[in-house]
Structures are given as C-alpha cells and as structure tokens.
From TrEMBL, chains A, B, C, D:
Natural source organism: Paracoccus laeviglucosivorans
Lineage top rank: taxon: Bacteria
An example molecular function term from Gene Ontology annotations: nucleotide binding
Annotated ranges, domain Gfo/Idh/MocA-like oxidoreductase N-terminal: 4-130
The GFO/IDH/MocA-like oxidoreductase domain, residue ranges: 139-266
The name this protein goes by in its record: Predicted dehydrogenase
PANTHER family: CONSERVED EXPRESSED OXIDOREDUCTASE (EUROFUNG), OXIDOREDUCTASE
Length: 364, 364, 364, 364
C-alpha cells in the first residue's frame, strides 16, 4: 500500500506539537509528508521545509489550492498551529477537498469553531481532531469495558489533568501563546481541560449536561485561567468532577480518569499509561495490561513500554485507514463532534465561573 | 508512672470503634480501662463489662456521678457511641470534671455541638476528638513542612475520602445508624468528610471560608448523602476541593491529601500511609518515610509498617501526657475547635447543596 | 477469659525487641506481664521492672523456679535477649514447665539449639519462635493459596531481606551484639536471613535440601557476614534464591517473597504488607487485600493499615489460644522445628561459603 | 541532512524484531530503508520487500556485493535474523565496507563471535549491537550518576530479566528458534540474560571477573535453559546476582537493575522505565524522571511516556551520528566489545553450571 501524501500547516523549527505529528505520521509508514506551510514567516517556512525536504508554501490558502490542483497533491493535511489559527486553514483545506487532521482544542472561539463546522458540513473531506490520549490501548480497553456493561450503571466520574509547568510567569514560545487569551481562547481549560473532557466522554460514552466551574488565575497578572475546577452533572444522575491545572507544582503531565459504577470501577493514569486498574465490587483489583487489550492498538508485546508518540501514531493509523476507505474503526477517532463538545464545555465553564459557579447547561 | 484510669461509653460487644479505642488506649500502657456504660441495653452493658473486667453502669449519668465520687474513679472517659449520642454523655462527664475523649464527628446536630461547647467552657476537664488520621507520623511531618514554609504559599488543596462499602443498600449494624439522618446527622459528609476536612486543615493550617457543595444519595431510597463533592475557597485566595463518597466501588478506605504551593507540593495517601511524597518545584519527588519524620510518633524503626491502630494510640498517648500536665504537644491533638469546625463544614455544605451549589460561608 | 500471666527475660530499658513483644502481648488483651528478669545487670533489671510494675528477678534461673512454685506464677515467658542468651533461659523455663515464646533466631550455635531441642522434648510446656512476618494476614493468605494448589507446581522461589542500616561501622546497642560473632552466631544470615528462610518455607510449604552460598563482610574490619547470597535447590526440582543484606543502602526493611508456579505467581513485599499480588498465567494481576484474606488475622477492616506490631500480636494471640488448649491454629505458629531449620540453614550456608559456594546439604 | 541509506537482513513478514528496527530507524528520520534480504525463502523475501518498496535480494552475500558496488548503495545494514545467522551476514557486510547494526546476542557460538570480531578488525566499517534498554534516558542517567561517583564505591549489583511467556511448551515462530540450541546457542541466558549482563555493565562501568551459575530447563523436554541464576564476583570485591527466566509466570518483560554503593543506591525497572529511584544513604528516595536526565535521549517533555521503540530509536540516532562522522556519543552505543562480553558471559555461565556452580572466570 502506498503512503498517503500529507501536508502540514505550522510546525516550523522549534515547534513542539508539529514534530510530534511528524513522528506519529511516519511511525507506522502510512503517511509521507510532502508539503508544508510551516510558518507564517516566509523565510522560516522555507528553511523548515528545506530541512524536511518538502514543497514549501508561505500561505496556507495558496497551499490548499495548489495541492488540490496537483495530481500528486496532498491527500490530507495536519494543522498544528496555535488555537486561533486552526479555523482558517481547516476551512481552506476542507473546501479544497483535502482531509484535515487538526490539533486540539478545535478553536480559540465559538465563532471559529462554527466556521470549521460549516466547512466540514459542505465538504466531502473528513475532519479529525488529535485527542491522542484516547488512542492509547488501555484507554480503548477502558471504553470497551464500560460499553459492555462491566461497570454497571456509572455513578461517579473524576477526570484530572494536572501540570506544574506554568506555576511561574516564565517566558517560552510554548507558554507565550498558551497564556494569551487572543491566541489560546482559554488557558488550562482549553489546553488540557478539553483533553480531560474528551477522555471522560470517550471512556464513559456520556456527556455532562451541566457544569459548575471555578476558574482561577493563580499566577499574578496572568490574563487567562491556569486552574479550572469543574463539577459535572449528567442527564443520568451521574455526578462528576474535572480538575485541570497548570500550576500544580511537581506534576509533569498528570492526566487521570476514575469511573465508579454500580458493579465495578476503573482507574487509568497517564504516568502508568499501560495499566488499567479494574476493580469489581466483590473482588480484588485487577491490573490490566495490553495482554488484556482488545483494540490491538500497539506495536510491541505487553511489557515493552509504549506511550505518547504511539498514541498519536494510533490516531494517524486509524485516520489512514479511514482515508483509504475503511471506516470500521471510525467511531474511536475523535473528530468534529469532539471538538464542538470541547468548545461547548469551555463556554459553559467560563459562563458558570463568571456567574460564581452557577450550574450552566452545556450547549453542544 | 501509673496508668490513667479510663472509662468508656458505648463500645459493647459487636461495636467497631469501641474495640479500636480500647486497643489504642492500652497499646502504649498509658491507660487502664476500669469502668463502662457499654450499651444502652442494661443486660448487654453488664455482659460486655464483665467480659472486659470493668465496673459496669447501665446509665452514663450515673456513671459520671459515681466515678467522680470515687477516690479511684476514672480520670477520663472515651465516648464511642453513634453521633447523636455524643453530646449527652460528653456534657455529663465534663460537668463531673472528667476528661472526655470523643469519637468524631462532634455531634449529629449543631444544637448538640453547642451543648458540648457550653459544657466544655465551664469545665476544668479537657475535651479531645479522635481525628486519628492526623496523628499518623507522616501527616504530622506534612504539617511541619507546611508550617516551616517548605511549600511556599499554598495555592491548591485537594482532599478525598472514598469508600465503596455503602454502594448497596446492605444492612449491617455499622451501616444502619450511619445512614439514619436522626442518628448520624450527615452521611458521607459527616462520617468521612469531616475527617478529610480536619486533615486538610491540620496539614495546611488554613480553613476555607466558603464552600460550594453537591450532595447526592446515589443508592435509591437512601435518606442521607452518600456522595459529597465540595469546592473550597480560602481567605488567602487558595482554592480547594473535598470529595467524600461511600459509593466509590472498590475503594476500601481511600483517604488522601494533595497540597500544591508556590515552591513545592506534597501528597499523602492512607493506603501508603508511611510515605509522604514531597516534590520541590525544581527537583525530583522525594519519598519521605519515618526516617524523615520529626514528630517521633511511632514505636518501631522505619520500614516496620505501623498504621491505623498506632495512629489512634498516638492520640491516646498525647492525651495521656496532657492529662498528666504536659501540654507541649497539645496543639497537635484535635479537640473542640476541630469538632465545631467540622460541624460548621457540614452545615455550610448542606446549605450550599440545598441552594444548588451557591457559595456559602463557613461559620465556625 | 482471664489474661495469661506472662514473664519476660531481657527487654530492659533501651531494648528494642522487648518493647515490641510487650506491646504485642497486650494488644489483644490475652496476656498480662507480671514478672521479669529484664537485664543481667541487677540494678537495671530492678529499675526496668519497677517502671513496668513487675516482680523482678536478677537471675532467670531463680525466676523460673520461683514462678513455677507460685500459685499465681507466670504461665509463659518471653525471651528477648541476644541470640547467645536464648538457650539457657529457654531450657530453664521449659524444665520448669513454663511455656516459652522466644525471639529468633533460635540460638547462636548449633549446640545451644540442641540444648533447647532437648529440653523441649522433655517438657510438657510449649516452645514458640516469633517469626512475626509469617503472621501477617496476606502472608497467611499466600500460604493458603499455595496449599490449595492455586499456583500449580512451584518452580521458582525468591526471598530477599535487604537493609542498609549496617552499611557503616556505626556503633549502637543494636548494632553492637549483632556484629559480634560470639553473641550473634551469624550476621545478616542469622538476623534477617532466617526470617526470609522461614517466610519462604511457611508460604511454599517446602524446604530446600541444598544451598550454595556466598557470604561477605562488606564493611572493612567487620568480623561477621553483612551480605549473604544463597542459591537454593529443592527436592522437587524447584530452584530458588535468598538474598539477605545489611549494607543495601537506602533499604529500610526490605523483606519480600516471590513464588512462581506452573499456574500462577504471587509476590509479597513488607513495604506494602497488606497487598498480595496474585497473577494467574492467563489473566491480569490481582491485588489482594485483607478483603480476600481468609485467616482473620487482623483487627480493623481492609484499608485501615495494620502492620508490624499487629503481626507480633497475631502470634501472641495464637499462642494464647494454644496455651488455653486450642490447637486449631497451631500449624501456623512458628516453633522449634522452624528454629532448627533456621539453624541448619545457617550452618549449611556458612559451610558452602567456606567451600567457595559448593552445594551443601541442609541437615534439618 | 539526507537520510542514511539502510538495508536489512531478516525481518520478513511475521517477524518481530525486524519490524521494531524499521520503526526505530524511521522514527527520527535519520535512515531510509532501501534494500533487503528479508528471508531465506526467495519468494517470501521478494514479497516482503515489495510490501516495503525495497530492492530485494535472495542472498545476503549477493546483497553485500551489489550494494557496495552501487553509487546509491546502502551505507548500513540491520541484521535481525536468529542468533546463528548473525555472523555470516555480519562478516559479509563488514568486508564490503558497510556498517552493521546487529541484534543481540552477538552470535550463537563463540566461533561465530570470533568470525565477526575478525571481520570487524579488518574493516573500516563500524559494528553496532542493539542492546536497546541501555539507550533509555533514565538508564543513561543512571550510568552518569555512577560515573560521577554519586553512589560511592559499588558494593552490590542485582540484575533481573523475568518473563513468563515460555512457561509452557507452546509453539510459535518466536518460541521455536529461541528454544533450539542450534539456532539460539543459549536460552534465557542468551536471549535476555545478555541484556541484563550488558545493562549492569553499562550502568556500573564494571564487568564481573567470575560467575557461578545454575541453569535449568523447567519445562519438561526443553533442550535449552529457560531459567538462569548467576552469582557474580567483581575484581573490586563487589558482589552481584543476575537472574534471567522465561518461566516466571505473570512476568511480561521484567527487566530491572539495582545497584548499592557506599553513598547511595539506585533502582530502575523497565515497567516504570521513565523513573529512576536514587536513594542517598541519609535522605529520602528521589524519583528521578526525564526532568533530571542529562542525556537528552528523548523526543517529548517529561510526563509524556516514551519507551521501548524510542529506546531503539535512540540507538539508531546515535548510530546515524557516528556514521556521519560524529563520535561524541560513541561510548554509549553498544558494539563489538559488548557482544564479546555477552558471549564470554554465556560460556562461563554454562561451564559453571556444568560444573555444579563452580566459580568460573569470564574470559572476555
């Protein structure tokens, strides 16, 4: 099978997530990166593209049109720009009939999100959102367990995403745009809170109808939330909590999910990402590993640690299958609905926090 | 040094916490149990007392008067009855000039709490409340670290107490009164939530000024809360969360505390009670053990596991020292103020939950 | 039921293991300590006895005779002296018809061990050896799992007991006699190696027939072993290893056991003493807790940490039952056979190490 | 920088380690796979090569000559055949001046190893051995800590590699040649024991001079060792142990290393591969992560789990640098000396086991 021709918007030299997407795209051999608009600075765009041996564009609109016109043009594009720069390229490539693989969250504003949704509705091309953590094998197994009823009725859900790297007013390229309301839209809530939101939804198959939020800016002078505590209510009566923080000193990347049902509970933590703790009501906790996984989302035998990059690669491989016409795993690949749900979560949480924690409906 | 003569109210055969108090009282040899009103059922009271070789009373008021009149009467009494039966004996013994060691929470209602407070104010006898978890060595070390500024300014506090044993409508003596509003006053909130509240306050030295709560009765037909999610706000701007649940399937006794400051973080969990994880902002996490403890609250070298009973025994030993006139460690022994604070927490959380999560001031 | 009258030899002020035995004896209320020969120094013996309110003896032979003659004399005695002082008092009390509870290892020399064995054979009194770790609930459950065949045929056994406290030539009362060949008999091998040996035997129900050992004195000038590596061969073809070290820097009290069979494996570690990891060949690891224990060897519900002192107390409670005529649990209480097995292990390991690791038969 | 042109011998469809090498080679973009002799079966070789888009050869000798003659011929070759088929292709490519990246162990027999050594000595091409675990960041950091003296003098070394997958006489392509003495040379000892041996040597910088071994075939009828217990003695007086087993039921891939020095200890386990526990003699254990790593051997920030594939990719990236002329990290890349050391270990362990555990010198 020939690799799918891939383009990239953003991800010039020094970028973080662009390099991740490139490794993920080549890990399983399903994609070949051939073109890019890697930077809004034309010189830098060209230099970065040369380093990678790509056709270079200084403008993503030009790129979308030119690639669509080429016989050997890209079939899919990865968008790895800051949040406020997702919508414009996404719309351009969707209109050009080119599949879009977009980093999360969907956009910086509800308006931008709506633009993407509109373009997607009118395009024959597909839209994917890289909520990579939900592509890890033990997360997929967790979802399977819930879906088959192994937990019974779900009563309690607790999702956390704790980081400490923004506990100071440190300056870095990564920190810069993430703490700028104009470019990020939301702080901890958007950057990592949406991951926790999507993870909880992916595993439980349920979405909260109402949230009550308390957003804080713990670092003096910071114009955006760096700590978000959100209480969740589900239509079923299930209660939950979501806590996202970037000022939790000492936490490197503390994503975790706990779900308690009437029959069993499960716990998953990113820092032991290849273990899933499943505890039946009347028995010992079971430490599930990939030996128990039924998704097949890995490359090595159990006990050979895989992780973050492989999670991204799982998504790219699933996307490749879809692009090649195989939709059998499409339901586990995050897409527009996840993005819109995340945007609705951000909007409701902000509104609730502004109203001192009043319960606000999530309008997905 | 001669053992302190101790009495007990409650704790007849089949009782749980009474047996715990008796082991704790004799572990370090500071107390000798000599008298008791072990049950409201006179026959059972006598039988239980006979088994333990105690002077038996069928009424705690008689006991308070008789013991106060004897030359060799009890010097202290342990009250280990259900919550609604704390106040009457506590008042009786305080009035008789006999020190009171009372199980938590302070009482089932604010009125009962006020009665104890009134009696304590007029008595020369002391009042102690057995929040045993805060007497464990690594918790005491955690408190010392916060007090000396090792964490910097505290930004985030998260306390959890998760159990699964009431996830069904099972019947047992222990479950029975704990799910009866008249006898317990509050459910998860009172039985375990007050432990988490006291633990967070003990370690951080701070008390939230406002709470926003969502109380649930997850088991159909249960007339009392079995899950309590409470958001916390401190006068300093610190934010926090407290989650107490008795329907968290698979959780045996999951008490934990996490505190994040500007300079460091700490995490303690009851299921690894002899480890304290201290993570400075710019260095590896440190797994502190009793080798680092400075409270001396143990009997064996590090690596020889101690736990629950020893925590109770630490309290009894501290109480013995106070009764014998040594107040040097009195500040680490929970007492009336802790009890009243717990009652204020329960009241505020209930009020907030009734008002759909509105922020309510904690009137301690 | 009236407490059993208990005496003690050794355990004067400043002693470690004597205080442990006293707490264990009183924890469950089955014993009352009434007499002692607490020190070979008469003044110190008297002072220590006064502090504890005991009848004091300056000589254990006098004590054995006097107590045997009294109507209210002791029924059992705890021997908590250094290894070389076990045999003489054990023989004296056994001859006087008083039950003996002796700390491990059995003795400092094979000759002393034989004296105890001889006296025990001629006495109607019982002899118990406090291998306390095998009295912890999850260890007892491990043994039950092996006994019922849950592991299939056992192939591999690995026992470790690692400490770091003797990594220097530090001076202390505890270190002093333990590194003196005349008083200790053996170093790491005897002090902790015999614990690991007994633990492995207790759980697996099997004893190695041959050992190959490499004993070292890692601290320059130390006249006794402080590190012992022993390979084990069982009659069944099972292979094993035992590693005991007192120079494993950073290890507080690292006792552990791993057993691999044809059908399942189990792992137990003292630092997580209330968990037993059971891994069937074709399924996830199960984290067993006291909720799965079938020995009933505890005082609190699962999740309320118990440990070292409670293990000792389990032994004292079992011993009390035996003294009172109930032998139903006698097979789980270590006694003379365990002591002689430990002595045979020491002798065989020393001989093997002297012969550069030649395989030596264990002559139990 | 243009990718290095890479060939492969072995690794046809269905192979395990060949696919791993391919992912590792492309992960960081330093290699492009262009040619292969993927199977000894010509039809299968061609089919596998077609699938990967490679120039296909049915014979590795032809391949070596043809590629050496091409202007655009391969610059390096990966050898991923069973052990007994390492030497012949390695010699062929070394003679052709093509760099060799060979899977471990070096060979099935000492004679084969000597052939490789001879060819390497006469070739200008380099020889690399993929002991991938020593390329993980925390292992490299462990080595740096030892090298800078953070542990003081090393006293004790314990390496383990435990797997359970061969606990039955199950048939599979992977199991087949690994349990055939002719193709594997050694069983657990060679397949995983050499990994543990290299890991211990890499981290400590020391090699044992003598071993005493006990090799077993636990599965009835198996003609090769599946459990190897080896005691180690170092010239410095350091003692150690190495345990490799393929019948340790429930163990997926349990590689671990513990090192105890006079000043500190360290512990690393593959199942928590991104943590290194460093315990100074007088302080709490420190949980080091990539935040403390100084090797830079990773692609993502701390907290984003990397693992097995990335370890392989670290080696491929280091090899790429060396091929391109940068030897600054050559000392951390395993090569011929490691391979010969592993062979000497196997030979000495077999000889010792045949002589009932006699201490045998390791003739490296």
């Amino acid at each position: 099978m020939k690799p799918i021709r891939l383009g990239m918007v953003g991800g010039g030299s020094g970028a973080f997530i662009g390099a991740i997407h490139r490794i993920a795209a080549r890990m399983d051999g399903h994609f070949q990166l051939v073109a890019g608009a890697l930077s809004s600075d034309p010189t830098r765009a060209q230099a970065s593209a040369d380093e990678l041996g790509l056709r270079s564009y200084s403008d993503f609109n030009d790129m979308a049109q030119a690639e669509a016109a080429r016989e050997d043009g890209i079939q899919a594009v990865s968008i790895v720009t800051p949040n406020h720069m997702h919508a414009a390229p996404a719309v351009a490539f969707l209109r050009a009939g080119i599949h879009v693989i977009c980093d999360k969250p969907l956009a910086a504003t509800p308006e931008q999100a709506a633009q993407i949704a509109g373009a997607a509705a009118e395009s024959r091309a597909r839209f994917f959102l890289t909520h990579n953590y939900s592509a890890l094998p033990m997360v997929r197994e967790a979802r399977a367990l819930v879906a088959e009823g192994a937990l019974g009725d779900i009563r309690l859900v607790q999702a956390e995403y704790l980081q400490g790297w923004l506990s100071d007013d440190a300056q870095s390229k990564q920190a810069d745009w993430r703490t700028d309301p104009a470019r990020a839209g939301a702080g901890a809530l958007g950057d990592i809170g949406t991951h926790a939101w999507q993870l909880a939804g992916f595993v439980t198959g349920m979405t909260p109808s109402h949230v009550s939020a308390d957003l804080s800016s713990m670092v003096p002078g910071r114009p955006i939330d760096d700590d978000a505590r959100v209480a969740l209510r589900y239509p079923s009566g299930t209660k939950g909590g979501l806590w996202a923080s970037q000022v939790a000193v000492g936490q490197e990347n503390g994503l975790s999910l706990r779900v308690f049902g009437t029959k069993a509970a499960l716990e998953w933590r990113l820092d032991t990402s290849e273990r899933l703790v499943f505890t039946p009501k009347d028995g010992p906790a079971q430490i599930m590993t990939r030996a128990q996984d039924r998704s097949g989302s890995f490359r090595t035998p159990p006990g050979h640690p895989e992780g973050y990059l492989e999670g991204f690669a799982n998504l790219y491989s699933d996307v490749a299958a879809i692009i090649r016409g195989d939709d059998s795993n499409a339901d586990r690949v995050p897409g527009l609905a996840d993005g819109l749900s995340g945007m609705a979560f951000i909007a409701a949480a902000k509104q609730s926090s502004d109203r001192d924690g009043a319960w606000v409906e999530v309008m997905a």
